[in-house]
Here is the input.
Amino acid sequence: MPRNSDSLNEPKRLGQQPGLVPEYDIWHNSSVRIRYITDLQEPTEAATSSNFLCLAFVSKTGQELSYFMQEDATSTASGALPPVADAEETIRRLRSENAALREDLRKFKEKQDLVDRHSSWKTAMQEGIAYSDGHSQTSSISAGKVLKQLAGISKERMKAGRIRNSSEFDYLPRSSDDEAQLEADFVRWGYCVVKGALTEEQIQILLDRLLDQAEAERHANNAIMTSRNEQAQLVNNLVLKGAAFRDLVEFKASAAQRGPLVDRLLTKIMGEGFGLGCAHGSIVHQGGGLQELHIDQGLMPLPYPQFPFGSLIIWCFSDFDLENGATYVVPGSHRTSDGQTIFGLGANLLELVDGEPGLVAICAPAGSCIITDTRVLHCGGRRTVTGTRYGMRCHYNRHFIRALHEQSSANLHVPDDIYELLSDRLKHMMGIVHNNPNPTGELSCRNATED
Ligand SMILES: O=C(O)CCC(=O)C(=O)O
Ligand SMILES: [Fe+2]
Here is the structure.
């Protein structure tokens, strides 16, 4: 679950540049070069201003002309930007980066083919240890490289009006309280929507606490703003921030009337004793919320087994739909009917995004709980109307997996007064249970025998 991915991946709008495209965004990641190794041809036009390179691309069908501005790679987000050398040189550089990425992908594919061929012991032994790249935390075979295919796509599709509401597809999950239906939806589409998971009163209690906490964090100058211009705020580590959140995290019916049902479904997904990855409040104002498409088990090296490592659930305190800022999802991108995980080195993710039903906005009325498979492609969607989308996102992991991001350290720094308030189950979920408060330390018989 990428934290702060809004701020990392969202384009930075730097204002108007006369003589170039009338309005443009600049990606901080490498969407330009990625884009033309996937569905677009090489750049057909180029123009430079003092700071930016503008590239024009024609899609394979020849129908769409898209413009991208690329910030000079050596520039910083703030302060003066150095001039781009010239268009030809930059295109040459992009071409060579493109070639390197193609080579990367070719190697990945080769590796995948090797796995598919059930390589012999001889080849496996010759290849040596290749479970990671030996230095980075996520390894060279992490999901990140595969996901680069999709850089910029959520924004592009959103801007082009190509994302439809899930309610337009009669076969996609609707909010339901029928447990068998919820299971079927989850298996088929990689998510399901629990109807009336929270009563109106329960929403009010959670929302009041969230708003109060969020405002106080802004006043204390330690608010986490995840979209530019303060269009979204993330209130992290909610287990430390209120009894209502703690009760919700452990599915008490007093906090969420259908909490026990959600708990049962999650136990079927991850087995008993699953842990808490993180628990966040998500506040999305108009213009905020957009993330890059991703999966929520991306730190796990590939290839994946036939089950998800966890589940991200979203308690909706407001209505979710395309305009209100719904979660975008590619339904069915998590697995095939015979149980194989789709996400992998050779996967053509763009084909899934462009397929049927493709990328859709999950419609979920306030009070619903969206439960997702960590393998399904999805991202936060932009709220385009006035007002605010409120929700709480909780990520749960299988028992043996460590908590994510700041939660993993927050779990270890629980103030004593809060620790006293935590139930046994919460302590277990957070990985801070004292199963042996008096562990045996270093022992020796030597002194005893000498005496
Ligand atoms: O807030 C949302 O709609 C989705 C957020 C998400 O995907 C994430 O934080 O991993
Ligand atoms: Fe996510």
